Amino acid sequence: MTFFTRMASLLTLGITLSCMGAHSAAATPEMKGKYMKTPTGYLMVLRHGDNVLQNLEQLAQDEKIPSASFVGIGFMSEATFGFYDFTRKQFDPKTYRNVEMANMTGSIAWKEGKPSIHAHGTVTDGTFNGAGGHLLGLTVGTGSCEITVTVHPERLERFTDPEIQANVLGLPQK
Hints:
This protein is α+β, with helices and mostly antiparallel strands.
């Protein structure tokens, strides 16, 4: 090996090892290599077959995130949206396959001791037709999904609003 090849290999190894150390020691094995800490929260990169909503829940659990907002983009093998029917008190789902996630926006809070993800998004297909709404399920397709999570300092809880029988985000009472 030439001197420059060895130096490039050592540099690559050093960068790889330093990136691996960017995660919290509390991260579960299935989350290893999927996110890193940033000054405002986390950057998560998910790959083919990853369940986006489950990974966000796991991140919140592992890192004990009190509450957060997130945005994301990427290619999805499946995106399931739901439109809430207030009469029946349930979602009417519709699934789209092999779509580009043009935007995903959401929040992380807690309900009954578990992370509670609320996400909406917009997807487009190969003909640039779009669909969107409340996300019920999201699986990464070929490529990746990039999510920026901005952590908030106070723990927020969701509760079921008795009037509409739907989950809502509660804010701290001061």
